[in-house]
Design a protein that fits this description.
Elements (H helix, E strand, L loop, with lengths): L6 H11 L5 E7 L5 H14 L3 E5 L2 H8 L8 H28 L4 E6 L2 H5 L4 H11 L3 H7 L3 E5 L24 H18 L5 E4 L5 H15 L4 E2 L5 E6 L7 E10 L5 E10 L2 E11 L4 E9 L1 H7 L10 E10 L2 E10 L4 E7 L13 E6 L8 H4 L4
Parallel strand pairs: 1-3, 1-4, 2-3, 4-5
Antiparallel strand pairs: 6-11, 7-14, 7-15, 8-9, 8-12, 9-10, 10-11, 12-13, 13-14
Helix pairs in contact: 4-6
Amino acid sequence: MYFCVHKNLVSTLCTKLIMKDIKRIVLTGGPCAGKTTALVRVIEHFSSLGFKVFTIPEVPTMFTQAGMNYLTDNQAFFYEGEKATLEIQLALEDKFMKMAKACTEPCIIVCDRGTMDISAYMKPEMWEEITKAVGTSTQQLRDTRYDAVLHLVSAADGAEQFYTTSNNASRNEAADEKGLEIARMLDKRVIEAWTGHSHLRVINNQEDFEKKLNRVLKEISNVLGLPQPIVEERKYIVEVVGELPDCIESQITQTYLVAEPGCEIRLRRRGWDGKFVNVHTTKKKISQTEELVTERQVSNNLYQSLLQQADPYRQTIHKLRKSFIWKGQFFELDKYLKPVDNLYILETKGIASHEDVRFPPFLKVIKDITGNTQYYNYNLALRV
């Protein structure tokens, strides 16, 4: 079944979106992740709700079909090809944004991969050189250009039986163990390229591909401000008993602001490698089963200003986060530093309620705390 929303709410939303708050969303992922099928489903679903859906084609595939060889040893040729890829990607997105602004119906733009995907296939030094030559930067492309980035995990990680190269003649990864390893590596590099975006969501490999597609629809609906079912991600107190795999490490500072009853306002700063992203999140329950969640990235100056609205009854939470994929499932491991310490909480991301969690061997589960309000960040922050 498709992910469902109330038609009358969609009608109200569409009226608001005619004001031209056009959302630009990237659909990306590793090789053989189901991206093409998901894109078709997105077009069908949101068109039926009254949206004009513009889709930006995958530029590297267009270039490959036109004669570009991304595996060439000719570095000058490779540089010019990648630079042209970025230029055309930017031009297509900008032109479609102008077209969307001219439409009378509400619009969304879905990019079949985005600009930061290009960076995953070259050395950082060349990427910096190319962005500078084009007149942009990683910060501009990753942090401010798109409203959401949805990464579909490659079937090579956790759903190997479904991995195939037959549906994409441009794919260079063979369907053998070596090819699977390359696909997993590319999958992680693409996630790393987008890490730092305020609305990056990793869509797991689930045992039912239909559920994977529905998660995509749900995340886009969330970006559009449609009411979402209240879903508890599963959480566990764990002990680290071994070496973690390659992880994305970040430091998180989380402050709760004064809010009206039934509403939660959170200000989060996430940093890694000396860079920081600030996100303002508001959660408001509209019924026992639904809530509205709005997120927006804020500047450093606005972040400092909003801190003046901190809830005096709650302390700021400080924690270290390690994000990783294990057997096709995405996890976040938080080590709390303040106001509690030596607490490790593992959270699943997008694993269906009936689906088994594939716990990694380097973590020992101490306690299942799913739904236990005592361990909600909002309550951990309470001053005793």
